[in-house]
Design brief:
Residues 20-219 form the Calcineurin-like phosphoesterase domain. This protein is α/β, with parallel strands linked by helices and 289 residues long. It has helices spanning 36-44, 60-66, 71-87, 138-142, 144-170, 178-185, 187-194, 196-206, 256-263, and strands at residues 17-24, 46-54, 90-94, 108-109, 113-116, 119-123, 126-130, 211-214, 221-225, 228-232, 241-245, 251-255. It has a single domain, classed as Purple Acid Phosphatase, chain A, domain 2 (4-Layer Sandwich). It contains nine helices and twelve strands. The longest helix is centred in the middle third of the chain and has 27 residues, at 144-170.
């Protein structure tokens, strides 16, 4: 059994996974479609030396317009703080466009907690530049009003989607994502306007980095763009994905269903459970409950 192999608890069969670093983005706390419960469940049952919250964790745009904060969103914040306090996890919070209210505070650093707009992540293979990525979206950068209008449209699609998927569920059909379908239809247009991945690749090269880790566009990815390793952590509104750096230094995408399967846990529903976890044992890569 290697250092990365899960260690099952014979009594429950449940595990805690251990990674060197976890990167998540776009949780959009404050939105009704935020999967805060699932994000909390994931973080609560994974150990890591560093947790990078790569922008749009809090959706200040939505909160200013409509409110919507709930106990599950508070529990997510508590989960992050508990990892810092009980597990000595280093927390890096990078501001995004939806939580741009943080601009007035950055950079700010406490003992194990930093708020900033970009971060250099050191690996054995070289440095990775970590940014949210909104600065390389032509719409977000040059037409903020259009980006906010697009946010309203996205929220509307999500609300319609909830009703439509409830209907599909009654008929025994799989859920369907309107927003993913719309994104696919306009993918070529967005690529021509923004050239998002290419611009991020160029920035990484300018900073002398071998890779770039971003979020923003809600499209998880792990690929080479030219000679640059491009990683996008996706989101916790629909896809429920993260980028993890394993103990051997390799990177991979992990989805919430995959996390549940690997730890032998049942998926959470819409409401986060507020159970307290016992302090984790840092010596194993997967800790039994």
């Amino acid at each position: 059994m290697s250092a990365d192999d899960p260690v099952p608890n014979p009594a429950t069969g449940k595990l805690k996974l251990r990674f060197k670093t976890i990167f998540i983005s776009d949780v959009h706390l404050g939105m009704p479609d935020s999967k805060a419960a699932q994000a909390s469940h994931f973080l609560r049952n994974c150990l890591c030396e560093k947790l990078v919250l790569n922008g749009d964790i809090i959706d200040a745009w939505h909160l200013r317009r409509m409110g919507g904060w709930n106990k599950g969103h508070t529990h997510f914040i508590r989960t992050v703080l508990r990892k810092m306090e009980k597990e000595s996890t280093e927390i890096i919070y990078l501001r995004g466009n939806h939580d741009d209210v943080l601009d007035r505070f950055i950079p700010i650093q406490f003992e194990h907690f930093m708020i900033t707009d970009e971060h250099i992540h050191h690996t054995r293979a070289g440095d990775y530049l970590v940014v949210h990525g909104d600065g390389f979206d032509a719409v977000s950068t040059n037409h903020a009003w259009l980006a906010q209008l697009g946010g309203l449209g996205y929220n509307f699609l999500l609300r319609i989607n909830r009703l439509y998927n409830a209907y599909r569920g009654l008929r025994g059909k799989e859920p369907f994502s309107f927003s993913a379908w719309v994104k696919q239809k306009v993918k070529s247009t967005i690529g021509a306007v923004g050239k998002y991945e290419e611009q991020l690749q160029n920035l990484a090269k300018q900073r002398g980095c071998v890779g770039i880790i971003c979020g923003h566009i809600h499209k998880v990815d792990n690929k080479m763009v030219g000679s640059t390793h491009y990683l996008n952590s996706g989101d916790w509104v629909e896809s429920m994905t993260a980028i993890v750096e394993n103990l051997d230094g390799s990177f991979e995408i992990i989805t919430y269903p995959e996390f549940c399967e690997r730890t032998h846990r049942d998926p959470k529903g819409a409401v986060a459970e507020a159970e307290e976890e016992t302090p984790a044992n840092p010596e194993s890569s997967a800790i039994p409950m």
